[in-house]
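FORM 12-B: Structure-to-Sequence Request
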């Protein structure tokens, strides 16, 4: 209701209050935005950015735009620390009338440049004429630990911002500023994010269904508490078979060597690669792929051509997902895919020679993220109790932190469109878990026919977390959702490419469809494939 009032009468919701904007048509220069007065908003700085400016001295040249740094909900927490939702809003001189909210990552805590794109997209949204906003999620992280500092969890207000509220607060402020600067509200509002940004996108769909016309949620951390449990599980399984370093700590990176992971990847490809009609080092029909790493187990001593019995057992336990002492699943299993040999999989799960022995990418987020449960003593990831600690984490944090509601009726009713995607070799959030979630959304919506009218899921073979890996991880999801929202043209497929296979293109098909080779065209060209069951 508030959004309609804003458009029709210049009235804007900012947090819990309603303030009157300047009359429609009146424009405030970038410099003058420094002095605007909006309850709850602090304008920290404004700057006219010249055309051709490159962020950090490199990257894509930006168009001319106004850059505003601001903060909402500034307050002193119960712990005496200062908190607030700091954000940056970039407003191009040649505005196309659209606003993109750029999702965060990890445990947030830093303001990423609001350009609306990264390595997995063709062109940043700012270059397309979008106004783009990004935020730190309601807290500033320790500069030595960006994206993994969970200390803010001790403040209930800051935690609520991270969990769900920051998107609403910053979006309200951004829309009001756009009205001031351009003299009109955005005609369309979109959200795009991956990982925690994907969780934030799904949270907006569920809690704030009127805020966005289209949402793109990649590798969403929608079962974040359960994924943290899986992180503890994988760490414990691999640490049990890893040699110890001089300090008596498990050297996780040595639990499986690069050549060991290549053996698994080659084994999966040998069994499942050709299921889409062509052998191309991509498993494009994952539902048909059934693989057991026991096929690689050594008959005798460990060699470079096989896995030890301990390695096979640990790998099967990790890929099977965490369970409690009664065998009850606590998260999800994981698909076997060629991306298990990708650098991203190793970095997250095992670490590398350039990293400290226990400093995998999941290790700090798991420990700090568990602190969000807000109950001391801290959880020891190497001695995690999958009965007591798992229940504690879920009981305290899951209700507000997880964005796992399958009732998307309000978003669907207002005409919203949702694109979900994930890498099949994502080591952080299981692709199988997202597939199951999509199936549950489908059931709640009344069936596949009803669901594909507003929500579609795309699976990326070989791709690790939010990109990377031996797959095709570059695709234009923003154009796809624009056409769906604004022209009522749903994405029958999205063309993908990637550095892992130069010159190759493939169609990403909406689940449960998969790409199949037609048998005669150029196998490097997406036009030679069709989506089907």
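FORM 12-B RESPONSE
SEQUENCE OUT:
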């Amino acid at each position: 209701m508030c959004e309609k009032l804003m458009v029709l009468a210049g009235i804007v919701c900012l947090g819990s209050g309603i303030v009157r904007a300047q009359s429609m048509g009146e424009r405030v220069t970038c410099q003058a935005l420094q002095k605007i007065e909006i309850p709850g908003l602090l304008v920290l700085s404004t700057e006219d950015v010249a055309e051709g400016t490159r962020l950090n001295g490199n990257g894509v040249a930006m168009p001319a735009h106004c850059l505003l740094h601001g903060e909402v909900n500034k307050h002193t927490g119960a712990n005496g620390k200062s908190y607030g939702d700091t954000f940056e809003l970039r407003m191009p001189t040649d505005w196309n009338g659209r606003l993109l909210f750029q999702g965060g990552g990890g445990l947030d805590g830093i303001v990423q440049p609001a350009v609306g794109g990264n390595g997995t997209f063709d062109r940043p949204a700012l270059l397309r004429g979008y106004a783009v906003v990004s935020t730190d999620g309601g807290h500033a992280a320790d500069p030595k630990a960006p994206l993994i500092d969970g200390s803010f969890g001790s403040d209930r207000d800051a935690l609520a911002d991270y969990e769900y509220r920051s998107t609403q607060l910053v979006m309200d402020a951004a829309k009001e500023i756009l009205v001031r600067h351009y003299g009109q509200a955005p005609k369309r509002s979109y959200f795009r994010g991956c990982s925690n940004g994907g969780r934030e996108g799904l949270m907006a769909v569920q809690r704030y269904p009127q805020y966005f016309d289209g949402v793109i949620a990649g590798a969403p951390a929608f079962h974040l508490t359960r994924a943290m449990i899986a992180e503890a599980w994988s760490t414990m399984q691999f640490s049990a078979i890893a040699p110890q370093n001089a300090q008596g700590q498990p050297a996780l990176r040595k639990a499986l060597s690069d050549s060991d992971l290549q053996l698994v990847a080659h084994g999966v490809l040998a069994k499942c690669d050709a299921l889409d009609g062509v052998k191309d080092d991509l498993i494009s029909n994952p539902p048909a792929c059934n693989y057991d790493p026991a096929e690689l187990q050594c008959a005798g001593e460990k060699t470079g051509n096989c896995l030890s019995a301990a390695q096979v057992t640990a790998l099967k336990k990790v890929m099977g997902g965490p369970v409690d002492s009664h065998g009850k699943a606590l998260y999800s299993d994981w698909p076997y895919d060629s991306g298990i040999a990708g650098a991203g999989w190793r970095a997250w799960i095992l670490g590398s020679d350039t990293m400290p022995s226990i400093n995998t990418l999941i290790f700090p987020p798991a420990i700090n993220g568990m602190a969000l449960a807000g109950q001391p003593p801290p959880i020891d990831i190497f001695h995690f109790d999958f009965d007591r600690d798992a229940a504690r984490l879920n009981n305290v944090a899951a209700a507000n932190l997880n964005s796992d509601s399958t009732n998307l009726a309000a978003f669907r009713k207002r005409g919203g469109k949702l694109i979900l995607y994930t890498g099949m070799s994502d080591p952080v959030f299981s692709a199988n878990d997202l597939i199951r979630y999509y199936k549950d959304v489908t059931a709640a919506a009344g069936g596949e026919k009803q669901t594909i009218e507003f929500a579609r899921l795309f699976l990326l073979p070989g791709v690790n977390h939010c990109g990377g890996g031996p797959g095709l991880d570059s695709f234009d999801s923003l154009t796809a959702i624009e056409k769906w929202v604004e022209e009522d043209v749903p994405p029958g497929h999205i063309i993908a490419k990637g550095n892992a296979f130069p010159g190759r293109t493939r169609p990403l098909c909406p689940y449960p469809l998969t790409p199949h080779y037609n048998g005669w065209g150029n196998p490097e060209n997406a036009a030679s494939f069709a989506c089907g069951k």
